[in-house]
């Protein structure tokens, strides 16, 4: 006896399980808006500055910093990810952004991580803010958390954007920002 005509019980359980899993990740979807995003960004920024001391100086030299407190990714051949965060200029939130990602390939699992984009030039920050949707490109330098304390003035003056991925949890190998698209949102 089938309750769902044309829709198998296995497909229903799979869809329900995937939806429940992503909802449980707590990435801010359906949250009360800017107050919750700001609270998460504040907490993530405190974690970043306290655990990787060089990042505070890096943020002070940057024209702006985009903090994405929680990106959630999941995949089984096809995958995707989503998160929300805030762009801060001079330590003040000026805009909110979402980050989305779609992937295809040999993958299975899920992970969560945080990341920060340090816009080291006014030009890079302006290009980011003017674009209808900005994707991480070749002009981004990736830094590891260990390098966060040693990114010198000479390095940062030559790089328009520095990306730092940290706080990974889960079981997809490697967190990267390739293919992530950022869009301004109104929470």
Automatic annotation (TrEMBL):
Xref: Pfam families: Ysc84
InterPro entries given in the database record: TAT_signal, Ysc84_actin-binding
PROSITE patterns assigned: TAT
Stretches assigned to the Ysc84 actin-binding domain: 102-181
Top-level taxonomic group: Bacteria
Protein name (record): Twin-arginine translocation pathway signal
Source organism (scientific name): Pseudotabrizicola alkalilacus
């Amino acid at each position: 006896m089938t309750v769902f005509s044309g829709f198998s019980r296995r497909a229903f359980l799979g869809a329900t399980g995937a939806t429940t899993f992503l909802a449980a990740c707590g990435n801010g979807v359906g949250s009360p808006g800017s107050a919750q995003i700001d609270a998460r960004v504040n907490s993530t920024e405190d974690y970043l500055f306290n655990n990787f001391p060089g990042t505070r100086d890096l943020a002070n030299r940057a024209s702006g910093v985009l903090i994405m407190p929680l990106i959630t990714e999941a995949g089984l051949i096809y995958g995707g990810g989503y998160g929300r965060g805030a762009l801060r200029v001079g330590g003040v939130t000026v805009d909110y952004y979402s980050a989305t990602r779609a992937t295809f390939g040999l993958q299975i699992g899920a992970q969560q991580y945080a990341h920060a984009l340090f816009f080291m030039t006014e030009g890079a920050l302006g290009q980011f803010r003017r674009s209808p949707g900005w994707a991480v490109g070749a002009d981004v330098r990736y830094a590891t958390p260990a390098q966060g304390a040693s990114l010198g003035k000479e390095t940062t003056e030559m790089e328009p954007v520095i990306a730092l991925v940290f706080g990974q949890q889960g079981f997809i190998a490697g967190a990267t920002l390739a293919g992530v698209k950022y869009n301004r949102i109104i929470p």
